Amino acid sequence: MILSTTPTLEGHPIREYLGIVTAETIIGANALRDFAASFRDFFGGRSSSYEEVFVQGKEEALRELSERAQRMGANAVVGIHLEYDTVGNAGSMLMVVATGTAVKI
Questions:
Q1: Close Cβ partners of 12 (under 8 Å, ≥ 6 residues apart)
Q2: How many Cα atoms occupy the beta-carbon half-sphere of 96 within 13 Å?
Q3: Is 102 exposed, middle or buried (0-12, 13-18, 19+ CB in 10 A)?
Q4: Which domains does the chain have, with CATH numbers?
């Protein structure tokens, strides 16, 4: 499965557009991450614990996007867009939404 943020794939003409495909994932940021991040917020610097949550959320959303596209008969997804938002009480969970167009190349 080829995943791309571009609308076309150089050297691979799109033979068929199968439709929009989406995937969502929600990951909780636990209290230990919040505690560690509060020190980073106070003293400055990067929060590797939260960065890991973003990476995990992106990877899970793209994996799910790929699986859903494959069930549609696609072998590629083009025009992928990722959105990040917080949900839950006090924004304690990260939501990642991946959207693209399932295609056959």
A1: 2, 76, 105
A2: 20
A3: buried
A4: 2-104 (3.30.110.70)
Six-digit token string for 41: 């917020």
pLDDT in tens, the chain (105 residues): 999 999 999 999 999 999 999 999 998 765 445 544 454 454 555 556 677 888 899 999 999 999 999 999 999 999 999 999 988 776 678 899 999 999 999
Q: 103: closest CA among 79, 75, 81?
A: 75
Closest CA to 97 of 65, 56, 50: 65
CA distance 96 to 60: 9
